[in-house]
Structures are given as C-alpha cells and as structure tokens.
Amino acid sequence: MPKREWITRDLTWKLFSLILAVGLWITIHNLRETPETIAPFATMTTATYTNLPVLAVSSGADVHNAQIAPNFVAVKVSGPADIMASLQKSDVHVLINLTGLDSARLLRRNVDVSVPPGVTLDRVSPAEVSVTILPATE
After folding, report:
1. Range of the domain at 16
2. Domain of 51: which CATH number?
3. Which residues on adjacent β-strands are paired with residue 27?
4. How many CA atoms lie within 13 A of 121 on its CB side?
C-alpha cells in the first residue's frame, strides 16, 4: 500500500478523530487551569460542641424505652469561617439507628452525626454508645 493511499484512506474519520482529540484536550486543559474560588485551608475554623443529646431513630419500632449510655456526646466540627460563624449547636444532630431491633442489652452502636453543608465532622467523643432496649410488655 503506497504512503499516499495510507494517508488519504478514511481521511474524514481521521480528521474527525483529530478534531475530537484536540477539543477534548482543550476542555481538560482549561478545567485543570481554572483557579479555585476558595483557597483550601485558608480561613478554616473549628468548633467543639459538648453535651449534644444522642437521639434514637428507628423506621418501625418504638424507641421510647431505649436506654442510651452515655446519652450525651461531644462533637468537633470545622469549616469555612463564614459558615462556622452562623453555625448553632442545634444545627448539629447526633443519632443512632435502632432499625430492626426489638430488644437488646448493652448493644454497642456507632454514633451518626449530621452537619450542615460545608461543615466537616472532625471527631465524635465517644464514637460508640451502649444501647439497652427492654422488650415491650403488653
């Protein structure tokens, strides 16, 4: 096969592939060169909230008779200074999921913490609580 035929064969597909590759390269190059709007770690602040109550949640069972020990935890969060300035203690929710449990004695459960967008959870102390659920008496 001569060189001329090798170059001109399927020329439209070769040109289309070249244009597509250049367009993709320009797009990726521009995305990588865009400066970040917020400098990471520039104005980050932290806050520690103590004595946050642990709330028991369950999809179907009654959790009123659940005994949680300890029933208060400390939470350390961090985030941008403008978000942290308006963050209230009531914006941080501490939960344990008891879905599927009818009775338990001294069961260890991880503590789940819900924080607003832009806020990062750094530490929960203690990270686990002990749960006792007495069987319902009729």
Report:
1. 3-33
2. 2.170.120.30
3. none
4. 16
> DSSP alpha helices (H): ranges in 34-55?
none
Residue 38: inside a domain: no
Cα–Cα distance for residue pair 53/55, rounded to 1 Å: 6
Residue 39 within any structural domain of the chain = no
Task: Encode pLDDT of 89-112 as tens digits.
Answer: 999 999 998 887 767 777 888 999
Residues 51 and 24 in one domain: no
85 Cβ contact list (under 8 Å, min separation 6): none
pTM strictly above 0.70: no
Q: Are 71 and 137 in contact (CB under 8 A)?
A: no
Cβ contacts of 61 within 8 Å, gap of 6 or more: 98, 99, 100, 101, 102
**Domain tally for the chain?**
2
Helices (H), the chain: 3-8, 11-33, 81-86
**Cα–chain-centroid distance for residue 77?**
13
